[in-house]
Amino acid sequence: MVEKMYISYNNVHKLCKAGAEEFLEQVGKPDVIIAIGGGGFIPARIIRTFLRSPGEKNIPIQAIGLSLYEDMGTGTDDKIGKEVIRTQWLDFGALSQHFDSLIGKNILIVDEVDDTRTTLHYAVSELYKDVKEIAEKLGRTSEKTRLSIFVLHNKLKEKRAQIDEDKMGGGKYFVGKDVPDVWIAYPWESDDIDTHTQHAVEQGNI
Ligand SMILES: O=P(O)(O)OC[C@H]1O[C@H](OP(=O)(O)OP(=O)(O)O)[C@H](O)[C@@H]1O
């Protein structure tokens, strides 16, 4: 097993294309894409290409910033915990005046990797909470909001958190590729993209 898995831009593109096809088939066209930054930005933009039919309006992409940081605090087990910090949240400024834009919508959350699942768990829980709160306020709780997920890679390992399916409202989880628990080197992190791509080709990740 390789210690470091090199991923090429072409590979990212193809995983997005396959993910979009699966998503369209199983869930249907999304109303909005929510990209978890920074790693989710590039896949979100690419997958949008394949989710849109020719002649249709672009699907809006909202960005949220979630960062993991080591919590050295009072965990009950001996592991160092991880906490999620919101560095940026939804902003419907130009899209609509209100946060109610998500109620009853088909939403696709995009990130590059599902590692311990902490980030995705947080994103789904918080989005569900926000939508529920505003739907209750507006008396629109009968409208079903679907939260789906697409990640390029899911690491096959013990997860620290699980995503509550009830909160996904019938939305689904899509993975480009399940991978072992190794270091994934994405092209946007590379300082020498030619060598990086060469490694990816050698490993068959093209
Ligand atoms: O499944 P988890 O264990 O939660 O890990 C996955 C998250 O970790 C990385 O984010 P990071 O905080 O490193 O920020 P980045 O996206 O800006 O690189 C990655 O982009 C995912 O969002």
From TrEMBL:
One of its GO terms (cellular component) is cytoplasm. GO terms for molecular function: hypoxanthine phosphoribosyltransferase activity; xanthine phosphoribosyltransferase activity. It holds the Pfam family Pribosyltran. The keyword S-adenosyl-L-methionine does not apply. CDD domains: PRTases_typeI (cd06223). It is an enzyme of class 2 (transferase). Residues 11-127 form the Phosphoribosyltransferase domain. Keywords: Glycosyltransferase, Transferase. Its EC number is 2.4.2.-. It comes from the Eukaryota. The keyword Glycosyltransferase applies. GO terms for biological process: GMP salvage; hypoxanthine metabolic process; IMP salvage; XMP salvage. This is Xanthine phosphoribosyltransferase 1.
